[in-house]
## 1
Amino acid sequence: MKSRKFVSLFLSLFVVLTLVLSGCSSSSKSSPKDTLQGAVEKSADMKSYGMKGSLKIEDLNLPPEVMAEEGAAEALGLIQSAEVSWTGAYRLDPMLLELNLMLSLSGDLAMSFQLPIIMNEEKMWLKVPNIPMLGLPEDLVGKFVEFDLKELAEEQGTEWTGMPDVGQSVQFFNDISGVVFEHIDEETYLSAPKAEEAGIPAEANVKNVVQFHLTQEQVEPFIKTVIKDIAPAVIELLSSNEEYRKLTELTPEDLNAAKAELESVTDEDLQAGIDEFNQMFKSLDILANFGINGDGYATYTDATIKAEIEDAGQTGNGTLKIVSELTDVNGDVKFEFDVPAAENVITLDELAEYGFY
C-alpha cells in the first residue's frame, strides 16, 4: 500500500530530522526550547570556523546466521576496529570549505588513509588517497581531481546557482524549528544538564548544555505528532514560500503530491507503520548533548545511538557514537590545503585516461 510506504519513510527519517533540529542550539537561561530556537539566528553570525569530529561503531553484535557466513567475522572485526574522523575549516568570504576525512583501522590490518575535499563557489576538488592495496599509479596519487559544479549540474539537467545563501538557510531552519516546537512537549525530550554531568570534556570549553533524549517508549507519540501535525505544517510552509522551495529544490507539484500522500494516511495505516517499527526495533535509545560556548555558539555535539533490531527472526544490536566540535568561530582559521595549485590538479577527462571515470 502506497500510504504505508510513506509512513515507513517518515519512521526512518524522523530521528535524523530531530537530531538536526536539536543540534542548532545557543546559550540562554530560558527553556531548552527557547534556547534551541534562538540559536539558529545566532549561527548566522558564523563567518568562519575550524571543525573536527569522529564516528565509531561499538558493541556490534550480529545474528549467528550472519556470522556463520564466509568472511562475516573478518568484516565484523574491520567494522569494530574502524574509526572515521575529520578535520577541516570553513570561511564565508571568499567562500572556501575544506574537509579532511580520515579512516583508521586497528588490529592485524592496521592502516589509515585520508581523503581531503576542498570546495569553493564554483569547483570541488578531491585528493586521490594513497591506499597501497588499490595499486593506484604513482603519478595519480596526491593529485586533486577537479569537479566543475556548474558543468556537473548541466550534465544532470539542472542549473548550478551557487552555494545556498547562509542567511536564508538560517531563517529556513528557524522557521522549521518553530513548527516542530509548536507541536512537541519540550519537557519530554529536552533538558539542560551541566557540562560535567553530560560527560563533555573540559577542553571543549562548553558553558551551557542542551540534552536531547529519545527512548523506545517515546517513539510512538512522537511519530504520530510528526505525521499528523509537523509534516503537514512543514509542507504548508514550503508551499507558501518560493525561496524555501528553491533552497530545497522542491516544486509545487512535489509538495502537492506529499500533501495528498499525507492526507491518504489513515489511523490504521499509521498504527500499522508504528507496529512495524516496534517489531523491527526491539530497543532504541538516543542521547545527544549540544554544548554552547561562552559566546553563545553551539560548538560541541556528541550523540550515542543504541539499537537492537530484529528482522526475519534474526537479532542484532550495536552502538553508534558521534562527536563533533567547532573551533575558532569567527577567527582566522587555518586551511591545510587551500585551493590546489594548477600543477596538482587533474581533470575528469584526464582521470578517464587512467580508467577510473
## 2
Amino acid sequence: MTIHVFAGPSLSGSPVLELAGVCPHPPIAHGDLYRLRPDAGDAVLIVDGVYQHTAPVRHKEILDLYAAGVPLYGTASLGALRAAEHQGHGMTGLGTVFAWYRDGRLISDADVALTHGDADVDFRAFTQAIVSILGVADRLAAAGRLDPAEAAKVVDLARSLHFTARTNTNLLASAGERGLAGPMRLVVEELRGDRLSDVKRTDAEDAVRSLLVENVLTPPGQGIEVPVTTWRKEWSLQHTPATSDPEGPTRRQVLACAQLFLPDFPDRHTAHVLAHLRPEYPEVGGDTFVPAWLDALTTEELVRRGILADGEAATLTRHDRAIRVLVRTFRRRSGRLVYDGIPPELVPDLAELAGQSARLLRLSSQAVQLNPKFHPGDIPTDVLDTTFAALWRTDALATHVLDRGFRSVEEFREQARPYFIAARAFVAMSERPAQAA
C-alpha cells in the first residue's frame, strides 16, 4: 500500500515523507486528484493545499475519488478543514485540528492559512497559522507557563491580523502595542526553528505513521453517489491525463489540440453534432431538413448573436443555414458544454494525438525557459486571434471557433494560449514559400 501525501509547510523537512510506503506530493490544488493514478489498496492523505493563486481542491473531486474506492484522509491544515466538511461523505479526519473544526472551536478557513515558499525552499512557512498559535497557547496555559486569559488574548490578537501579516515580527510588534509582549514572546519562541511544537506538524506526522501501520478505521466507500454535474464533467475532462502517463497532456488539452490543428475538425465536429442529435431527432441532417424554427430569428439577429458571420447567410442554402445554426449553438444537457469527453471518433487516434499535443505544448514550455518574461497568459488577444485566423485561413474567427467545437471565443482563447507558439510556427512555415517567391 502507498500513502499519497499532499503536504507543504506542515511537513517541511519532516522525515516521515521519506518513510517506505509514502509518496509525497506538493500541497494539493484543484485537479490534482483527477491527475492522481492510485493503485488498488492505496490511500490519500491531504495535509496542505493552495487556494489563493489557484483554485483549491473541490469537494466533488474528493467525492469522486472516494466513490471509486480510494480511502481519503485529512489532517493538520486544509486537509482537516475538508475532512470536517466531508464527515460522513467520503473523507476521514485525523488529529487535533480536525477535532477543533468538527467540534466548532474553529469555523474559519483562515485559521489554517499561512504564506509559504515554493518547492525550491521546501515549502518553508513565512507566517504563523492561528491553529499553530492556538496549539502552543493551550499547551503553555496547561503547563502553567501562561495565564489562560493572556493565552486567549494572544490568540485574539493574532486573529486580528490578516494571515499574510502574521510574521513573528508583526506578532511581537502588535503584542507590544497592546501590553502582551511577554505572552506573545513565549508563544513565538515555541514556534521558532524547526516547528517541532507546531500542532499542524504533529497532526500530520501522527497521521502518516498511523496510516502506515493501518491504525485508522475508515468508513466504507460503497454507496456514495456523486451527482454527474456539468462542472464535474468539465473538471474531469480538464485535469484527467489522456493516457497512462500522469505527466502527459490532459484529455482537454488533447481535444483542444485536435480542435486547433486538425484541418478537417470542422467537418468532424458537424458530423459529431448531427450524430448526437439524430437518435432523438431523426430528421436532423436530412437533405430536406429545414426546421420551422429557422425563421423565428432574422438573419440580422443571427449575425448580432454571433451565430452567423456578416454576409454568410447569402452564401448558404436554407438547409445549410439550419445545419450551421444547429452546430454553432449545440450544447449538451444541461446547456454549458459542447464536449464533456474525448469524442468516440478520436479515440482510435488518441495515443498519436496525445503525443502530438505533448510535443506542441513543449514548445511553449521551452519558450518560457528561454524567456522567463514570456507567459502564454500575457499574449495579447488580438495577436492570438490573428495567428489562429491565419492558420485556419478564415476572416470570420468568431464563427469559425464555433465550427471547431468551442462554445465561445473566450473558451477558444483559453485553450489556444498554450498552443500559441506552435500555431505561430505553423503560420510562419506556411508563409515561407510566398516570401521566397
